[in-house]
Task: structure prediction
Amino acid sequence: MMTRIKALLLGSSALMIPIGGAYAADLPTLKAAPVEFVRVCNAYGAGFFYIPGTDTCIRLSGRARYDFLYQTSKVRTGGGGDLTGYLGLMRLNLDSRTQTDYGTLRAFLRIDVANRSGPFLTSGSRQRESLAIAGLGADAFGRTQTYVNADKAFIQFAGLTAGRASSFFDFYAHDFELIGGTAGSDTFSTNLLAYSAILGNGITLTASMEDPTYRRFPIFGTGSAVGAFTAGGGFAGYSNAFNPFTPSTWLAPIVVGPGNVAFVDVTQKSRMPDFVGAARIDQAWGSAQLSAAVHEINAGDAGSTVAGITTATTGLGISPTGRASNAYGWAVQGGLKVNLPFIATGDTLYLQGAYGQGAIAYTGISNYTAPYDALGAAPVGGGSFAQYYADAVLNPATGRLELSTSFSAVASLLHYWSPAWRSAFFGSYAQIDYSSKGRNALGLLGFGFAPAGASASNALAFATSPILRGNNQMITGASLIWTPVKDLDIGVEGEYIRTALNSGVTPDISKNALRYVNSQDAAQFRFRVQRDF
Result:
């Protein structure tokens, strides 16, 4: 019996051997895929690595920031009275580079997302650019805001830069400041197409075609056919009727012609890009740049005429015209950056000046109060008077666009007390002037120069109105920043702001009384904790 069982098992084993061998031969084998380790890319500096399977190097970086703001205010009504504000911000950067036969091909992306509250941190400028969403809750509108910005998205290749990037006109763009209130051009994001030629010895020449939308201030207008320019300020995004007029036939001393008024759409249209040119040199001692820009200003067609307004217009001898001729604003800027290692390692001095006509954004007088708007007041919601900003005024007596004139000068010094402690000291002065001819002609028509409750024909109201009055702004400030470990900054900054009319006085709108002022003062302080990686 035992012999039979052994024979059966041996036979079964013999049968199973070829069958198992056949299965082993037919089954697929699992071969390990080659492991792609992330390789460090040393060609473009620290932090780059190769994208697996490609010859493209990429660097990921970012930022986390907390800000606390204190801002003075004279009143506690309306939009005034907010003294504190808060901000939490995240930033992500992606920098990719590939070496080609034509040089480095680069793409850079940056996105900023923030939630902020309070005066200034809740930026009306960002809402005017449609980059921010305002809170709508009780006591929230104008005080809370979510900010989303595709800050950078550009390609660089063989001298070409295309996409969303910083304007090539800019030089010192608040490099050492937390608040960033000093006067000077600082368009951190615009859409552009540029070519840069590297001549050697650190010299670069750049020609850039840039989006005019981010450099545009309005033509002065009321937003309605007749009435005062309201303290709400600015334009609501629709066509703003105003008044283009041209003289009728003049037979001195007799004026011949109808006295009707024509209103025109003064919202500017995007017809021509801004053209920017820059010459720059970078050396061991520092850098310098000379830049210039040309900016078109235009108005739309005339709309309805108002035949009932005849008294003032007859005196001017004016008649409607179809459209005001376009004009071209321009600006020039010079900047100097000097390294000061003989004082302390890292010490740097910036000096910059700009002058322009019809180009307020290029001279940067509005940085503190109202970018992209026609009206600003400092401090926010509690100013003694409003500053009026316009690239041009449509003169009703000539039908011409009269350009405003502005200039700015800024200095900023960064000093390291020790490797872990540093301070910035900065100051700026900026001024804007308007042609008296256009203002006087508008005054004769009674448009927008009388304060609430006053007669438009009141000579005192016209003489003291801040509308289209030349004004200036002086800003000084300093900071103290501690860097306990690499890429971590904890610091505080304060600045003093004085805004004034270039001459004369105006009613103090922050007081409920007939009080006249020439200037107003404000102060702002900001505390920041920031981590870069």
Helices lie at 2-26, 124-128, 311-316, 360-363, 436-445, 459-464. The chain has a mean pLDDT of 80. DSSP finds six helices and 31 strands in the chain. The longest strand covers residues 84-100.
